[in-house]
Each structure stands twice: as structure tokens, then as C-alpha cells.
Design brief:
Layout: H1 12-28, E1 33-36, H2 40-46, E2 59-62, E3 69-73, H3 77-81, E4 90-94, H4 100-105, E5 113-116, H5 122-131, E6 136-139, H6 140-143, H7 153-173, H8 183-196, E7 201-209, E8 230-239, E9 242-243, E10 246-252, H9 257-275, H10 283-296, E11 308-310, E12 317-321, E13 334-337, E14 340-343, E15 347-350, E16 353-358, E17 361-364, E18 373-375
Parallel strand pairs: 1-5, 3-4, 5-6, 10-18
Antiparallel strand pairs: 1-2, 2-3, 7-8, 8-9, 8-10, 11-12, 13-16, 14-15, 16-17
Helix pairs in contact: 7-8, 9-10
The protein binds zinc ion (ZN) (3 copies).
């Protein structure tokens, strides 16, 4: 198979525009600014990911009317300078033995109200709070949960590529033998295929055979796959820095009538939730639609997780398709729709596609067949 050309890299201007947008959103949310620690938010805003996240403080401050400023340990300054977003940021280094929180606090106001990355270490937040006793901090997941939720065309291009690579992985994994092999062996095949199809990072390779499929958090273990098993395959990672995440359930040999029935219900739930996607619909409605189909069929108690999660520079992020999430879907959002039914001690079925919101409705980023596939 031919691999399409990699997407154009993000430019300094791209990152500068994201930082400006975050400042706007912060002001709208009544904040005096945002402070960003190493992790997904910093990668998304600057392209910078310190090679090792340590106790030494790295912190980006975004406040209205000021140039974005990043405090970095002096020994990491060359790495920070090499980040594609760095030319849009003023770097301030600090040396061991000085107080980095004093340096960082110079860009913030005591008494101000700031959003801070969920991934910031508690030690760093406490350090800031000590030098800014009257300032208040709130996690970005709470005060600006939709910060990265709406994807630009250049991000969708990457998510599309990651989805296509995950689909290619699925089309090949159903050709490998299952019966008599360990779950971990099939999981290793999944990881190899994801990398072959362009992923630079594999985040998870779930192979839940027979009763293990009834535990949604089972990854892969030393169970030997048997004839008649339903097998949940859920895999994904990062490609060009953006996530993939797809699930299909296969059977080893012809399915029992019960496995087929449960699969039909999950498939109908996934389709109904997908059909409900359009701008303006609250996230919780997607969950309600999927859950409605499964409850109607009598399996409501066996659908034990939310219907979906957002995806972007991480494989799990807002928006969440869950009861109580009233945020409306917006064009450009990307998330999973992954209903499942779990029959404890016996088997599980889940079907998951990544979907994006367009003005006309949903568009799937995963396009492999939803029919129950028989493997050998
Ligand atoms: Zn067989
Ligand atoms: Zn998944
Ligand atoms: Zn998922």
C-alpha cells in the first residue's frame, strides 16, 4: 500500500494563532490568563515537549495584552528554542539555586484568576500559590474544558490519517490466526501493524477474548484464545502527533446466536448515536441515544461506561459523551462513539469509531465494516 505524503508541519504562525485564541477564550471565561505546564496543552500550543518532565519548572504564561512567556530551566533552553512555536514566545530561563516560582510570578498578578493545565504537578501549583497568595487557580479541564475540542482543518487531516492507518491495521489483523494463540501475541501484531501503517506511538492494544472481553479495562493477557470466543479488539496511538482509537469485536469461528444478537444491538446503538450527531446537539444526547437502544434491548445494566471521549493530541480528552455534559457539539469536534455490552464471566462486545462533526452531521474517521467478522 502507498502511504500518502505527510501533512505540512505546523508553523510558528499556527501556534501563535492558537495561543491568541486561548487568551480570547480565557477572557470570555472571566480569567486573567492561563498557565500551561508540559503535557498535551503545551504540545498543542507550542509544539514543545521537554524530553523528560522533571521537578524543574517549565511554565508558559498566556495573559491578555502581553507576549506569551515561557519560563524554562536554563539547561533545557536549547530544546525549548528548537520548538516550532518558540519564536512566538519570550523565553525566560532560570538556574538551579534560584526560585523559578518568583520568575514565573513576574508574569502573573497576585489576586488574578488563572486557568492551569490539568497535567501541572501539584508541587508547581503550590510553588506558584506560595509566591502569589492572593491569586486563584482552576484546572483547565474545569474552566476551559473545550480548549482543544474544535479541530482545525490541519488537525483533521492528521486525525483522518491516523484513522485510516487504524483501519488498515484492522483489515490486516483479521487475517492473522487467533485460535490457540495468546492474547498478548495478537496484541503484539496490532502494535506492529499500527507502526507499519505510520503510527509513531502505540497507546493501547486491547485483545479481550471470551470472558476477558467483558472487562472493558482488560488490555491483553496470557489467556489462550479458543474456538467460539468473541474477541474485543480496541487499539490506537498517535500518528503525526494525533490520535487513533477504534474497536471491533470478532468471533473465532461462527458466532453463537447470543453473540450475534448482542453484536446486533451494539451495532444498532453505534449507528443510532452516529446518526444523532450534528452541531448544537448536547454531548449527553449522543450518550442517551446509544444507551436508549441498548436499554430497549434489555442490556442497559451491561453498558457500564460513557459512550465516548474526544481525541486530538491525546487519545482521551474532552468532549465527553456522557450524561450531564450539556456542551453542544460544534463543527470540527472529534470524538469516539463506542457503546458496549459486557456479560460478566462470558463475553463482551464493543464497536468504536472516531467521528467528526460537520455542518451536515457526523463523518466517520473509521470506515471498516461493522458486521461481525469471523476469524480463524
Ligand atoms: Zn476453529
Ligand atoms: Zn478504544
Ligand atoms: Zn475510545
Amino acid at each position: 500500500m502507498t502511504t500518502p505524503a505527510p501533512p505540512r508541519g505546523f508553523t510558528t504562525e499556527d501556534y501563535a494563532a492558537r495561543m491568541a485564541r486561548v487568551v480570547e477564550q480565557a477572557v470570555e471565561a472571566g480569567l486573567d490568563g492561563v498557565v500551561v505546564a508540559p503535557g498535551p496543552d503545551l504540545v498543542w500550543l507550542t509544539g514543545y515537549q521537554p524530553t523528560a518532565i522533571t521537578e524543574r519548572l517549565t511554565l508558559l504564561s498566556l495573559v491578555p495584552g502581553a507576549r506569551p512567556t515561557m519560563v524554562v530551566p536554563i539547561l533545557e533552553r536549547p530544546d525549548a528554542e528548537a520548538a516550532p512555536g518558540a519564536p512566538a514566545v519570550a523565553l525566560r530561563d532560570w538556574t538551579d539555586g534560584s526560585d523559578p516560582y518568583r520568575t514565573a510570578s513576574g508574569f502573573l498578578e497576585d489576586g488574578g484568576r488563572y486557568g492551569i493545565s490539568d497535567a501541572a504537578w501539584a508541587a508547581h501549583l503550590l510553588g506558584l500559590q506560595h509566591v502569589l497568595p492572593a491569586a486563584s487557580f482552576d484546572g483547565l479541564g474545569r474552566c476551559l474544558p473545550m480548549l482543544r475540542a474544535v479541530k482545525g482543518a490541519d488537525e483533521l487531516e492528521r486525525l483522518d490519517a491516523a484513522g485510516a492507518a487504524a483501519d488498515a491495521t484492522y483489515r490486516e489483523i483479521v487475517e492473522v490466526p487467533f485460535e490457540g494463540r495468546l492474547e498478548t501475541e495478537v496484541a503484539a501484531d496490532l502494535a506492529r501493524l499500527l507502526r507499519e501503517h505510520g503510527h509513531e506511538q502505540v497507546d493501547f492494544t486491547v485483545v479481550g477474548s471470551g470472558p476477558n472481553g467483558a472487562n472493558p479495562h482488560h488490555e491483553a493477557g496470557d489467556r489462550r484464545i479458543q474456538h467460539g470466543d468473541a474477541v474485543v479488539l480496541d487499539f490506537g496511538g498517535l500518528m503525526y502527533g494525533y490520535g487513533s482509537d477504534t474497536t471491533r469485536t470478532v468471533t473465532v469461528g461462527e458466532p453463537s446466536p447470543e453473540v450475534q444478537e448482542v453484536h446486533d444491538v451494539v451495532r444498532a446503538a453505534q449507528q443510532a448515536a452516529f446518526a444523532a450527531v450534528r452541531p448544537g446537539v448536547p454531548c449527553q444526547e449522543i450518550d442517551r441515544v446509544a444507551r436508549g437502544v441498548i436499554t430497549e434491548a434489555g442490556y442497559g445494566e451491561q453498558f457500564i461506561h460513557r459512550t465516548g471521549h474526544g481525541i486530538g493530541v491525546t487519545t482521551h480528552e474532552p468532549p465527553y459523551m456522557v450524561e450531564g455534559e450539556e456542551q453542544p457539539l460544534r463543527t470540527g469536534m472529534c470524538f469516539s462513539i463506542e457503546p458496549g455490552i459486557y456479560l460478566t464471566g462470558r463475553f463482551g462486545v464493543r464497536i468504536e469509531d472516531i467521528v467528526t462533526v460537520t455542518d451536515e452531521g457526523g463523518r466517520r474517521l473509521n470506515n471498516t465494516d461493522h458486521r461481525l467478522h469471523v476469524v480463524v
